[in-house]
Amino acid sequence: MSEIQAFFHMGGYAWYVWPSFLITLVVLVANVWLSRIQFRSALLDAKRRVVAQAKKNNP
Amino acid sequence: MFKWIHRFGSAPFVYRFAGALAPWIGFVCLAILLSGLYLGLIVAPEDYEQGESYRIIYVHVPAAILSMFVYVVMAVASAVFLIWRLKLADIVAQASAPIGASFTFLALATGSLWGKPMWGTWWIWDGRLTSELLLLFLYFGYMALRAAIEHPQSAAKAAAVLALVGVVNIPVIHYSVEWWSTLHQPATITKMGERNIHPSMGIPLGLMIVGFQLLYAYVLLIRMRTGILKRESRASWVAQLPEVNNTMANSKLSGTNRV
After folding, report:
1. Claim: this prediction has a pTM higher than 0.80
2. pLDDT at residue B259 in the model
3. Could you tell me how many CB contacts below 8 A there are between chain A and chain B?
4. Fewer Cβ within 10 Å of end Cβ, chain B: N or C?
């Protein structure tokens, strides 16, 4: 077995090791991604409010 | 002293400071996680008892440590909020809950994937696993309580009390493997005095733990900024922020096309 094959084989535990790392990747990326999306949407709300206010003051 | 607290506790300062700090933490976090993965998956040798399956430790232990660490942060922030009525502390607690819940879920899922080949079962109702599951429900309960109570001030208070009551679960999780006989192995690295993990495995594990901590810090800063923006949406400093008050970008939003 080549070195790379052995790496992915994980001594026969591939079906336990790789899903663990995959699920970790998903959870970590989702944490970062969701927090950034929510921040952008809050920023957009603030912008909309400023625009609405400017329209009100200066129709 | 009070001036100092006022300055560091003021929403505009924290908003800007968190925004300046977050990218640096994110960059260092990524570098540390990648080096931890490289050392843990490629360089570290296999375990003489558990073979290659032990490598799950590099994600399971950091997730489990953070699941408890985030809860302690949440409980301390809740106490600060209840005692000194510091709004920022409530923002920290609120921002921490979903992150802590995700780490708890991760600890349970990776633990299950490790338990199957080593113990022969995905799940047992022992002290460690049950108290960790209870931790997940505490996080869910905290978030549900906040969402269920209409008045924000009462929601914050009720959730803070829940977070404080639930903190008794943390020592239970920690000592569960010593109090009750179980399939779960005892702590790998916290035994003081004796070194019971070889540096070839201990260093990648340490890097992964620090990497997870930094990821928590990064996401917490972003979520705090979101919380501050939402709560201070009517404040004049928000309207004056360059990222908010940008006429070029805002002309698109208002639908007018001034050339």
Report:
1. yes
2. 41
3. 109
4. C
